[in-house]
From TrEMBL:
GO terms for cellular component: mitochondrial matrix. This is Malate dehydrogenase. It comes from Solanum stoloniferum. It is found in: Mitochondrion matrix. It is an enzyme of class 1 (oxidoreductase).
Amino acid sequence: MRTSMLKSIVRRSSTAGASYVSRRGFASGSAPERKVAVLGAAGGIGQPLSLLMKLNPLVSSLSLYDIAGTPGVAADVSHINTRSEVVGFAGEEQLGKALEGADIVIIPAGVPRKPGMTRDDLFNINAGIVKSLCTAIAKYCPNALVNMISNPVNSTVPIAAEVFKKAGTYDEKKLFGVTMLDVVRAKTFYAGKAKVNVAEVNLPVVGGHAGITILPLFSQATPKANLSNEEIVALTKRTQDGGTEVVEAKAGKGSATLSMAYAGAIFADACLKGLNGVPDVVECAFVQSNVTELPFFASKVRLGKNGVEEVLGLGPLNEYEKQGLEALKPELLSSIEKGIKFAKEN
Ligand SMILES: NC(=O)C1=CN([C@@H]2O[C@H](COP(=O)(O)OP(=O)(O)OC[C@H]3O[C@@H](n4cnc5c(N)ncnc54)[C@H](O)[C@@H]3O)[C@@H](O)[C@H]2O)C=CC1
Ligand SMILES: O=C([O-])CC(=O)C(=O)O
């Protein structure tokens, strides 16, 4: 389904201006106007993500913001003959204009890991970046859906929530930690091991977005496959360490950017579909949650016209997954609390 989405975007892009009725049920001319802002658009994720958002026919206005470099990225991307207008904004004084009227703000701003670092090692720099960007979101587009990519997601999402609470604009339905890359990885690794068509694979990944807080629920994977316990343990570990696998392979040149741009584009597309009233749009995301005793948790979420329409439960877990769930809670809670504390004290 994911691969077919990109294929269909590319196919539609190549017939830009022609009339079609998409799977989303809109004639090309009648899809609502939607502005998407990318903050950190000149970065490793930001650039390919901007490209993919430019290919999405649900976007009418694409706003590319970074502290520097965005005029070039915007000029480049704007030559692609698809629906959206593209404008680049550089420097803090242009942040307000970049955000005004945005329906969705995607945030891949901040520093990435180097080998030997954990995502939490990014906290000191990225917490401040996320806080200042969210302060501007509260001021200039308080109703936008926020897709938080910047790490550590387990802390940056609680920081964003606190900033919005302070500003009086918090709506828990509109704040998402993007955990889609964990789902993308779990699907890929499962398909490889189970020897099934990757395009048909579906499974939830719950918890958070760091190490053992990433909990893929392979017992719920479809199509079903007869994998051994050892194989499931190895798949779980590979999914949990997927980010580190890329960080090590890039050997000091950053972390996942291309697969993250793909995952971010898929998740933003799901948010756009939800906003546009497409029924039954369900993806995993790290959101405010009652699914466990933790205040934020990643699970399947039904997306709608206001963002989160319903946070879905975990479904049946096997013993191994139950153990994984209990094991992840202390670390996830401590990362959440760290974010809340930072936002309250700064
Ligand atoms: N949620 C997830 O699954 C994933 C999250 N990430 C995270 O995404 C973040 C970005 O990663 P990369 O794009 O590889 O890093 P990068 O360093 O290539 O790009 C980051 C961009 O953010 C910009 N930036 C810094 N401060 C800013 C500010 N105040 N306002 C606007 N832009 C600002 C930089 O100028 C740069 O262009 C990192 O924190 C990384 O850990 C990365 C992969 C997956
Ligand atoms: O591992 C990292 O630092 C980047 C990330 O979140 C991922 O690739 O899942």
